[in-house]
Amino acid sequence: MTGRMAPRELPRSVDDLAIDPEWEITRNLTNRQWITAERRLGSQGRRWVIGMTPIRDDVVAAILWADDAVAEHTRGTETMMCATVHGWVTKLRADAPPPRRFREA
Question: Which sequence spans correspond to the domains of the chain?
């Protein structure tokens, strides 16, 4: 990898996400394993935060906050969650409608 992902290539790891400087990655100082990955965006008049953290060796949690409320929460492999959060970022950048729970009535 050259430090850049192809435009249509999905991130498969937190290291792939970290190519984008908008992602803040916290790592263990001893083994350099990632502990948290976080990205902040503004969209639809809200402050959005996307966070990821490993739960077990093979399971990662991904959480999307709208302002201070959880809008989405899911778990899966690191590869699956990287694709999920990439989708959230893409939709928020495009000002796509927010998750149903946060749409105005």
Answer: 14-92
pLDDT by residue (tens digit) across 51-94?
999 999 899 999 999 999 999 999 999 999 999 999 999 999 98
Write out the two tokens for 82: 């990287």
Instruction: Give the separation between CA 63 and CA 86, rounded to whole angstroms.
Output: 12
Q: Is the pTM here over 0.70, yes or no?
A: yes
Q: Which long-range contacts does 77-85 make (Cβ < 8 Å, 24+ apart)?
A: 78/12, 78/13, 78/14, 78/54, 79/12, 79/13, 81/52, 82/10, 82/11, 82/12, 82/13, 82/14, 82/16, 82/17, 82/52, 83/10, 83/11, 83/12, 85/17, 85/37, 85/39, 85/50, 85/52
